[in-house]
Description:
With 395 residues, the chain is α/β, with parallel strands linked by helices. It is built from 15 helices and 12 strands.
Amino acid sequence: MDLINELLDPSLSNKTELVLKWCILGTNEIKLLADVLRINCHLKILRIECNTIVDQRLKYLFEALKMNNTLKILDIRASIITDDSIEYLIEAFKTNLSLTTLSLWSNNINSKILQKFIDIFKKNCTVSTLYLCNNNVNDLILYHLSDVLKINFTLKILHLEYNNIYAIGAQYLAVLLEKTNEILEEIHLWGNKIGDNGVKYLAKALKTNNSLVTLNIGSNQISSIGMQYLMKSLKKNTTLKRLDLCYNAIGDEGVKYLSDTLKINTSLVFLQLGNINISNEGVKYLASSLEKNKTIKFMDLGSNNFDDQGAQYLDEALKINTTLTKLYAFSTNISLGMLSKINQKININQINQKRLRCLQILCLEKINQQGQTTEIESINPTIYTSCMDKYDKDI
Length: 395
């Protein structure tokens, strides 16, 4: 209560974030919070997590949201709210023009109300990140969402983890990515059931889509068959940078398809392969690809079934590979000695990459000082692009 009161006086508080967890927010607290949204011009992030709020009280909060023009992130997560609450939120979105991130993670929203809520994105032009994890999103809801996204050109990041999405839902997304939407950059589907057929649809879309940089399909009942579809597409795709395949029974056969692709693919940077049922043989395939791949910086191999023999393959590959700077191999059968050998080589890569980055920055600064930016770009685009990497975010 004191924290909320403090936020009512902008002269006393410059706080930009308010987090309320595990509280029972009564009428007085919600009314005060609504006043904050009306008056405070500093608050940009509001997280209300794991709280009990009665619907009538939420009305005060969402009424204030109609007038607020500073809040950027609203996270109402794992709170006991019902369908009427979403109705109030829908009304608020008709006038709010500041929110860029909305999270309704784990609120058990009714599918009919959810469909109505999705309709707001036909007109909303500010929200770029949406979390609907664990909210009864099914294939029908995804059909409706994909239809809305044909005319929405703002939403870039979509979190749909832990829902009831099957292959047909993945097909709706795939058609959207393939034919209409060139805006979506991240799709997170962890903990659904798209299976090999769902991957087949997404793989087809990835052959032509040029916007998606992150695909999270961990724990989706994918086998080596699905990997075959996906890896065939990623031999052609040049934009996907992050791929999460954890907790799928891909096995050594699936990893062989991945290895063949990594020898060709030049865009993947971040690869999560934890708990995918690979043995020493699968690690051998991966190691052979690391000898040729020059873009992978992060690889997670935790909770798999390989030992020092598999680790030895990785160690040999790292004598050649200079770009892998993070390798996770927790909960495997690797000895501490072998793990230490691998980490030494990873550390050398980290140091060398930092040195290279410094050289790139110095090179670009020199080019700028001499006013030769355009000339260098036209003569040698590769060097120019390498220098411009100084602006890339680190993994």
